[in-house]
Amino acid sequence: MRGSLTDSHGMTALNQKEFARRRKQLMRMMGPGGIAILPAAPVKLRNRDVEHDYRQESDFHYLTGFAEPEAVLVLIPGRKQAEYILFCRERDPLRETWDGARAGQDGAVADYGADDSFPIGDVDDILPGLIEQCERVYYTLGVSPEFDQQVVSWVQQLRSQANRGTHTPQEFIALDHLLHDMRLYKSRAEISAMKKSAKIAAQAHVRAIKSCQPGMREYEIHADLIHEFRRHGCAPSYSPIVGSGPNSCVLHYNQNDRLMEDGELLLVDAGCEFDYYASDITRTYPVNGRFSPEQKAIYEVVLKAQYSAIDKVRPGNHWNDPHDAAVKLITAGLKDLGLLKGPLSKLIKDGAYSKFFMHRTGHWIGLDVHDVGDYKVGDEWRVLEPGMVLTIEPGIYIPAGTKGVAKKWWNIGVRIEDDVLVTKDGYDVLSDGAPKEVAVIEKLMARAGKVA
Ligand code: GLY
Ligand code: MN
Ligand code: MN
Hints:
Bound molecules: glycine, manganese (II) ion
Helix content: 25-40%
Strand content: 15-25%
Number of helices: 13
Number of strands: 21
Structural class: alpha+beta
């Protein structure tokens, strides 16, 4: 789902110049003699003849903005006749009556900036001849076994004709290696889409916070989130997690059907996709609108850890600095509450906190919710640079029955997650429209008339 600024043909709101700029940049890195080949996402069946909603593959979208399946992008830097070739479906009035408009070959050139376009049915006849003119094939192996097989068959075809003087490329290079590094640095247009995505998701969290009360089912909160996403033309960027009571401690819970009771916490992890760009926000709050002393104590530890981690987001710092900060404050907080015992430095060194905080503090975010891009360069954590966007999402989870932990702490699961842009001199929290201070959450819930 593409967000409200897409037109009825699924064309993205980003200016076509942005896609052209990306193709140019990639082609500059490939240099003459290279050919890049990238297939569109296949249509996937959900059950029998029912299809999943179609969503273009992120790399393919990044380079084309083309939203149809059954397409192949080919880039051949320096080729005189055409550098950018798009194979795609032909126009078909009968099929279009059922499934909607297709760009066709004319549309690929006129609307999507292709230098040339051919019917997808001709790809086996045309592509081997294009590969033959090149020395290096840029292609990402291992994503689609079917397409891998097709690429291998084109190369085999060239090899088998070697005695007729046919040329075969010498090198295969991973296309994603170049592309994913480009995707890590967000342009102005991308940042603006990500801000919008985070703003809509934050509004969805506010709506959920306001409507939450004991006696509701988790799926009613889920419905609030979806309502807010859809009314802005967005869809979820992943299955929302709406976990109350014991479910707040299940990291990937998404059944979302439990009756929420007085005195429990609710953990909601939900984001949307606006014009292909993901948001990913978690908020945790009391079902009845008032934190109990134990819930509040754990919550404040996580919140402090999150602030401290966010404060480490700035150019020149390393990828792991926010995580180290979160670990330090979570360990100290758990020690202060008596949930961990021993010298702080030893607890950190031994990873004692991982009994309660068992995931990392964040991930890159962009076209994919867990976005592409290396976290290390060689053996070193990556240095943060302006334009990178990451999540900061520390948590503490204490399931019922946790050994050595008094019962009053059980079923408290807290995660607080924001989307953070690295700016020239620090950071910008894109998702700050969703409140996270205890007093602000309690006031919001009280105002909504949910607290007696
Ligand atoms: N919603 C998945 C994550 O937080 O990474
Ligand atoms: Mn996340
Ligand atoms: Mn999340």
